[in-house]
Amino acid sequence: MSLQSQAILAGVDAATTVHRMLRTEESAVERSSPYIDVFGAIDELAVPLYFAPLDNLLGACIREHGPAVGIVVTSRRRLHIQRFTAAHELGHFVLEHEGSLDREILTPWSSRKDPRETAADSFAAEFLIPNWLLTMVAQQHAWWDSSRLSDPGTVYQLSLRLGASYSATCWALGAHSILPVPTAAELSKVPPRKLKKELLPSGFEPPHGWADVWKITDRDHGRKIMASPEDILVLDLAESAAAGYLWEVDDSNVPVVRIVHDHSAIDFDRIGAATRRHLLLEISERSPDSRIALRHHRAFDKSDSLGSLSLIACTSGAHPEGEFRGSN
Q1: Helix (H) or strand (E) run with residue 83 in it
Q2: What pLDDT, on the 0 to 100 scale, is given for residue 52?
Q3: Which positions carry the signal peptide feature in this UniProt record (predicted)?
Q4: Which residues does residue 313 pair with via DSSP β-bridges, in sequence order?
Q5: Which has the higher per-residue pLDDT, 68 or 38?
Q6: Domain contains 327
Q7: Residue 291, SS3?
Q8: What are 48-94's pLDDT values in tens digits?
Q9: Which domain holds residue 167?
Q10: Which of these ranges, 42-56, 175-189, 257-271, 312-326, has the smallest mean pLDDT?
Q11: DSSP string, 114-170
Q12: Which of 6, 59, 113, 233 is 20–30 Å from 285 (CA)?
């Protein structure tokens, strides 16, 4: 077995051990949350965690004297990068590596020369996307099918609901033998920018190119998502406009989201067909947990409703500069 293969196995085994020790699977089920709380895990292991405005580094695992250790993560990148960076640095700590300064963090199948970095990469990917979590989220959204999971658009949406990068999610699909490794590797070559554009109406340009684009469906009803300010929520809803029923965003959501696109379309080839309501909502405010709700009701009698769609959105985004003080 090559040194790289040994490093990957070492990282995966270490992540599995930490999951068992911290009972993360039981905690995720109890909280009904699909996200691994990597920052909380670092805190639970009594490792100081700091967010700093790093210019040329994503993160660092610092060992000063003997057992003294600390983890630093950039405050200048988006949340999913902070999460993977923190998990990578945690990997260095758990695997008892010497201090590490990381300018670039990759997926484990990247052609790294240093086995320690490969081990930390594989730890991070396994810790954030264990097989049980990937399976649970894919089944919740009716994606648990090889043909669905071979679609890059589906994998992108899956990565958002795992709080992981698109490339790390592709790696996990191969590592857990859900897809053949060559298939997963090919998927990883599709740029997320292209997948975002496919979800948006022609001619619509999001204000910020780095923002993620969420395709919200009835499978998200009652669930929690971890979005960031400037992210776009795409909704494609059947609407009985001819009968006077319209979808309306709850007024209490206004501080958290704003409508940036609203279009209705009718399928003229089908008699009596419902209108399709296409809504784009932009996350406009940071909030730890906000309810985003829509109701399908008559405009003149809001008590007469055909249905609703609601979800909980944590829109805090990336952690700002400062010491991590524990999860809420």
Answers
A1: helix 79-94
A2: 96
A3: none
A4: 225, 290
A5: 38
A6: no
A7: strand
A8: 999 999 988 999 998 866 555 799 999 999 999 999 999 999 999 99
A9: 132-190
A10: 257-271
A11: -HHHHHHHHHHHHHHS-HHHHHHHHHHTT--SHHHHTSHHHHHHHHHHHTS-HHHHH
A12: 59
- Number of independent structural domains in the chain: 3
Question: What's the mean pLDDT when you consider all of the chain?
Answer: 89
Task: Output the six-digit token pair for 67.
Answer: 């057992």
| Cross-strand pairs, 292 | 311
Tell me the chain's radius of gyration from C-alpha atoms: 21
Both tokens of residue 140?
Answer: 């919740």
**Tokens 């201090």 correspond to what residue?**
99
Both 61 and 83 in a single domain? Answer: yes
d(CA 306, CA 170): 38
Whether residues 41 and 107 share a domain: the answer is yes
Q: Could you tell me which of 92, 156, 161, 77 has the C-alpha nearest to residue 122?
A: 92
User: What tokens were used for 179?
Assistant: 């897809």
Q: Are 137 and 109 members of one domain? A: no
pLDDT in tens, 173-224: 999 999 999 999 999 999 999 999 999 998 888 777 889 999 999 999 999 9
**Tokens read off for 18:** 């930490």
Q: What per-residue string of b and e applies to 84-104 under the rule 16 or more CB within 10 Å gives b?
A: bbbbbbbbbbbbebeebebee
Whether 19 and 118 share a structural domain: yes
Higher-confidence residue of 65 and 298: namely 298
What average pLDDT does this structure show over 16-26?
94
- Cβ atoms 225, 281 nearer than 8 A: no
CA distance 319 to 288: 12
Q: Which of 97, 113, 128 is the last residue of a domain?
A: 128
Q: Specify the DSSP class assigned to residue 219.
A: G
Residue 35's CATH number: 1.10.10.2910
pTM attached to this predicted model: 0.91
pLDDT of residue 43: 95
- Mean pLDDT value of segment 278-283: 94
Rounded CA-CA distance 239/276 in Å is 6
pLDDT reading at 319 higher than 90: yes
